[in-house]
Amino acid sequence: MAIVQVLQVILIAGLSVVAVFLAVLFVIQKAITNPFPVIKRRKEEKHFLDPIRIQNVDFPSVEDAPTVDLSVIVPAYNEEQRLPKMLEECMSFLEEKAKDGVFTYEVIVVSDGSSDGTVSLGLKYSKRHTVEKFRVLELLDNRGKGGAVRLGMLSARGRYLLFADADGATKFSDYDKLEKSMKSITKDWQSDGIVVGSRSHLEQDAIASRSLFRTLLMHGFHFLVWLFAVRSIRDTQCGFKLLTRSAAHTLFENLHVERWAFDVELLYIAERLKMPIAEVAVNWTEIEGSKLTPVWSWIQMGVDLFLIWFRYAIGAWQLNNQNKKHVS
């Protein structure tokens, strides 16, 4: 009986500590958190360099009418070494697709405060293909992958917008799969829709090649995603996602998280707004050079997942589906 009483005391004490912690966190988050994201963008980040005419040109806005079929957004932080292979595959595919004389595209490489030759590399492609097809958005400070993708999306001209990782891990020709799926869930670019490239079909192979510790981390992360945020998608983190212009406008102007967990919040918002979402298997190969550090990054993303859920749950973060701007 004494043991049972001790356990009851421990349980009550533990629950009391949790309750106090959540109450304090509630007060802090309500006090310091802006309900809508304030998207800051320096004056120098609002234009791109035309390397042929040697002059700066203002980026358009996602609020403008689209002028090309597809915009490809490539976030890049110190990717001078890995980016060329990805861009060669990407441009080769897009150029072949454009031979029909109907399909039009642009690629926007977003240098996220890079200190290597990422910008110079991008400008070489811009000069080779012209700024009608290839542009470089240079961010002066490192914002995080989500912040880089967001500003690329808000500067795009496409009816449909794809963001693709700079490492080229996903076979770019799988875009056709995403495009086909998008047509099945939306009427056109003016309706909301998002198609997510997925590696979930490769999970068993990944488990076989990973250590037990990393496998446990992977399953733990997937469980936290399901528990706190996204229920309809198995692989939230694959860097190959296609959005309609309408969806991109709404989602990225509501997005708060600018670092690794931004994909989760993006899909969480889409689910909350009941946007059509599809998940499509893609060919994916692990590429060396990831900026993620296995343990710390997983812990950081776990904390972010909880805070995404908590902030929306208490109303510290809110959704604005009226496409009103909160930009400074």
UniProtKB/TrEMBL annotation:
Q: Which UniProt keywords apply?
A: Endoplasmic reticulum, Glycosyltransferase, Membrane, Signal-anchor, Transferase, Transmembrane, Transmembrane helix
Domain called Glycosyltransferase 2-like: residue spans:
71-251
Q: Chief subcellular site?
A: endoplasmic reticulum
Q: Which reaction does it catalyse?
A: a di-trans,poly-cis-dolichyl phosphate + UDP-alpha-D-glucose = a di-trans,poly-cis-dolichyl beta-D-glucosyl phosphate + UDP
Q: Name one GO molecular function term.
A: dolichyl-phosphate beta-glucosyltransferase activity
Q: Name one Pfam family in it.
A: Glycos_transf_2
Q: Which GO terms describe its cellular component?
A: endoplasmic reticulum membrane
Annotated transmembrane regions: 6-28
Please give, as recorded in its UniProt entry, the membrane topology of this protein. Single-pass membrane protein
Q: In which pathway does it act?
A: Protein modification; protein glycosylation
UniProt xrefs under InterPro entries? DPG_synthase, Glyco_trans_2-like, Nucleotide-diphossugar_trans
Q: How would you classify this enzyme at the top EC level?
A: transferase
Q: Name the domain of life this protein comes from.
A: Eukaryota
Q: Name one GO biological process term.
A: protein N-linked glycosylation
- Provide the E.C. number(s) assigned to this enzyme: 2.4.1.117
The places in or outside the cell where this protein is found are: Endoplasmic reticulum membrane
State the PANTHER family in the record.
Answer: DOLICHYL-PHOSPHATE BETA-GLUCOSYLTRANSFERASE, GLYCOSYL TRANSFERASE
Which family does this protein fall into? Belongs to the glycosyltransferase 2 family.
Q: Report what the protein is called.
A: Dolichyl-phosphate beta-glucosyltransferase
Q: Which organism is it from?
A: Zeugodacus cucurbitae
Query: What are the leading ranks of the lineage?
Result: Eukaryota, Metazoa, Ecdysozoa, Arthropoda, Hexapoda
